[in-house]
Amino acid sequence: CWRIQRQGNPWRFFKERKIKYQLIDLDEKGISKGELNSVKRSVSINNLIDIESKLYISLNLNKIRSVEMREDIMLKNPKVIKAPIVRDGNKATVGYDIDTWEQWIKDSRK
Length: 110
Known about the structure:
Blueprint (H helix, E strand, L loop, with lengths): L1 E4 L4 H7 L4 E4 L1 H4 L3 H8 L4 H4 L5 H5 L8 H10 L8 E4 L2 E4 L3 H11 L2
Parallel strand pairs: 1-2
Antiparallel strand pairs: 1-3, 3-4
């Protein structure tokens, strides 16, 4: 079961291919430290931060270099996290990465 986090419409990609998924709304539920750590194994912290978010500047993320402080801000303000986050086991993507998702599908059929 693939996990998709936040808004947008990536689930259409999965519905059309009849792939089971679980949708988690980060704005409503947030992200746990464990989940964030799991995603960070595949995606760097800098790639997880949405630099176009209104909160990016207001929270001074553009000036904070400490990874721990950035993570703490992301946990408390999930709207600064790029979306969608799509996970397949230990693998994860951020944003619409259809090429990677298609590769995951091919790999799962081998």
